[in-house]
Amino acid sequence: MTNYPVLLAGEWREADATGSFQAVDPCTGEAIDESYPVSSRADLEAAVNAAAGAAEALLDLDAGVRASFLDAYADRIDANADEIAERAHIETALPLSPRLRDVELPRTTGQLRQAAAAVREGTWAEVTIDTETNIRARLGPLGGAVAVFGPNNFPLAFNGISGGDFAAAIAAGNPVIAKAHSSHPGTSRLLAQEASAAVEETGLPPAMVQMLYRLSHEDGASLVSHPAIGATGYTGARSSGLTLKAAADGAGKPIYLELSSINPIFILPGALEARGEELVGEYVTSVLMGAGQFCTNPGITVLLKSEATSRFVVAATSGFEEAEPGYLLGERVVSGLGESVAALVASGAELLTGGNPVEGDGFRFQNTLLRISGADFVRQPEALQREAFGNAGLLIEAADEEELVAISGAFEGNLTGCIYSCSEGTDEALYEPIARNLRRQVGRLLNDKMPTGVAVSSAMNHGGPFPATGHPGFTAVGIPGSIRRFAVLECYDNVREERLPVELRNRNPGGGLFRRIDGCWSSEDVSCE
């Protein structure tokens, strides 16, 4: 079986391979009849060197060319949407419709187009001009490639060759070396074909977009720490991410990580009394959506012990038992979920339903719900915050309001935290201390809605304190915020105007760019008086 070629320096070429692998159909557990290469260090070096040349060539191109590429790429994905979504469905078992074709694919092209608009508008670069000292600054490209590692659970919107990190890195003016995820190499190949065609169509340097399918762990660490690499964006498992972070930190290279999150939910007594049945439906739907394989899946839900809570637990358990378990992305996801459930039980959690893999073909696990007391959670919060990635949830029952607040202060860093409260105001006294605790530990605080959806909004923060991410000050979703991760602060002191980047010159390029001139935002030209 012949390996598919890799995309290097603008060409599809045979990999310098150290081995090969095949994706697996999660519905059957059988290998898909296609072979992909494990690239050697030689492929890695070729990609990094080609990207360095592309970064240099970009300095002579107008930013509008990058914007044109992002738009053209989005158009090409839309034109081939059915084939791309179908391949993603085969490789991940995620529902073709509405999940992939109708939701995730439009989100993917929407991100690319938002990034293109941000490039044209330019305010993301935070141009700052001090006329008294003649010092000028902007955010500019890193001068080397951004390596992007995509996850298994979003084959389109977070793919290394098409997702948010990719769009942000290109928008900031950097070439991308994408490392495809081994769960969906065929999807990545189809996307890379359209990206490569869009590069050629718009006149970007050929090595602007490159893709390798797999590297050894050692070579992955070498990539993120390479002297010529600009930065890395990574979404995936905590253990692998921290290994890459150690390598990047050791070389002084920026790396932006999205790791793991349990996304705690607090359902306060007034809300539960007012609309308990409705909240059961929201909870079951959110936990089991996509077989629980969302980074914003609500892994822990906290309630105050009461008759209403008992009814909620019974109804949620029935909802888990009645729903058909979805397919998980791979065998390792099944085994990892089993290990996490066993660890939670060993730490004192009561198994209400589920707890075992589903027998038969494919990768499935029983819908699993667990429960533990608030006192037990407060005694061992670290062990009970273990992420159970998949269709599983843990309920915590607090004995009283004081314990409920204490639980809210025991969480580690998360992407999201949510509080459901009564609209009549009866939960306000509890809301304030819980919200204050969660605010310090989550990137996005929600009220009265499940956290599963992540809107591609300029105000979105898809980030949070460690261990949800590697740095609490950045977001992986939301333009222009996500672009700034892949930029460097450039300062020009008394540099002659004709030598400055066009954004920093006296004349406003295009007339519409907002720049901070002597402390005030303005779209005017700089006065020469």
Low-confidence stretches: none
Cα-atom radius of gyration: 24 Å
The tally of strands reads 21
Number of helices: 15
Mean pLDDT: 96
Strand content: 15-25%
Structure characteristics:
seven-stranded mixed beta sheet; 529 residues; single chain; five-stranded mixed beta sheet; alpha/beta; Aldehyde Dehydrogenase, Chain A, domain 1; Aldehyde Dehydrogenase, Chain A, domain 2; 2 domains; 15 helices
Architecture blueprint of SSEs:
Elements: E1 6-8, E2 11-13, E3 17-21, E4 36-39, H1 41-58, H2 63-79, H3 81-92, H4 96-121, E5 128-130, E6 135-140, E7 145-149, H5 164-171, E8 176-179, H6 185-202, E9 209-212, H7 217-224, E10 229-235, H8 238-250, E11 255-258, E12 265-267, H9 269-288, E13 300-304, H10 307-322, H11 331-346, E14 350-353, E15 368-373, H12 374-379, H13 381-384, E16 392-398, H14 401-408, E17 414-420, H15 428-441, E18 442-447, E19 488-493, E20 515-517, E21 520-522
Parallel strand pairs: 5-20, 7-8, 7-10, 8-9, 10-11, 12-13, 12-17, 13-16, 15-16, 17-18
Antiparallel strand pairs: 1-2, 3-4, 5-6, 6-19, 14-15, 20-21
Can you tell me about this structure?
The model has no long low-confidence stretch (mean pLDDT about 95). The protein has helices at about 40-60, 65-80, 80-90, 95-120, 165-170, 185-200, 215-225, 240-250, 270-290, 305-320, 330-345, 375-380, 380-385, 400-410, 430-440, and strands at about 5-10, 10-15, 15-20, 35-40, 130, 135-140, 145-150, 175-180, 210, 230-235, 255-260, 265, 300-305, 350-355, 370-375, 390-400, 415-420, 440-445, 490-495, 515, 520. The protein is built from 15 helices and 21 strands. The protein folds into 2 domains: about 60-260 and about 475-485, Aldehyde Dehydrogenase, Chain A, domain 1; about 265-445, 3-Layer(aba) Sandwich (Aldehyde Dehydrogenase, Chain A, domain 2). The strands form 5 sheets. A 7-stranded mixed β-sheet has the order 14-15-16-13-12-17-18, with helices on both faces. Helix 2 (about 65-80) packs antiparallel against helix 4 (about 95-120), helix 9 (about 270-290) runs parallel beside helix 10 (about 305-320) and helix 14 (about 400-410) packs parallel to helix 15. By secondary structure, the chain is α/β, with parallel strands linked by helices. The chain starts with 5 loop residues before the first strand and ends in a 7-residue tail after the last strand.
